[in-house]
Amino acid sequence: MLELLQQERQAYFQKRSQRTPVIFVKGTFGVDTKTQCDLLCKGFDFQHISLRDVLREKAADQTYLHAKFVRDCLEEDVNVPTQLAISLLELKINEGRKEGKSWSLVEGFPESMEQILEFKKKVQKSNYVLFLSCLSAETPRHSLGGGSDDSDVVNHLKAVEGYFKEVRRK
């Protein structure tokens, strides 16, 4: 019995040592999170994972089992199920670790507190959030007609606020 517990403990610590710190990058309307992530990745050799890019890649992959479903979700502008998003992100994070990337910047995820909690449960507990904001006066004119609105900003803020409350309780 003691030997089994030692093996489980050793497996836990081995998995823990292989974790890649993950930073979820969120931002208010007008912040170009993709560009900011690209700049950080160049400066620090981080891995940049855009959930939208990962989904497009999988939608185009005819060998991927859920390609049509992902393609339909993208065309209808509907979020893919949380489990699917998390499994795809986990694969990308692991690919980056194998390539020697020490950190992963994840853009476009999470969209809700449920997604953060599920990611913590399925992938890893310790993660970070980088929240970028842009004053409306600084918002580039060309992005004013973009696809985001105030409710998106409020939802992002609520998800991040909920995450910080969860972290403070522990």
Task: Looking at this protein, list some descriptive labels.
alpha/beta; Rossmann fold; 4-stranded parallel sheet; 4 strands; ATP binding; P-loop_NTPase; nucleobase-containing compound kinase activity; Adenylate kinase
Beta strand %: 5-15%
Q: Write out the CATH superfamily name.
A: P-loop containing nucleotide triphosphate hydrolases
Order of helices and strands: HEHEHHHEHEH
Q: Can you tell me the CATH architecture?
A: 3-Layer(aba) Sandwich
Q: What is the assembly state of the chains in this entry?
A: single chain
Q: Which class in CATH terms?
A: Alpha Beta
Question: Termini, distance in Å?
Answer: 31 Å
CATH topology: Rossmann fold
The residue ranges in which pLDDT falls below 50 over 5 or more consecutive positions are 139-148
* Overall geometric form: globular
Keywords: Kinase, Nucleotide-binding, Transferase
Pfam family, one: ADK
GO molecular function: ATP binding; nucleobase-containing compound kinase activity
GO biological process, one term: nucleobase-containing compound metabolic process
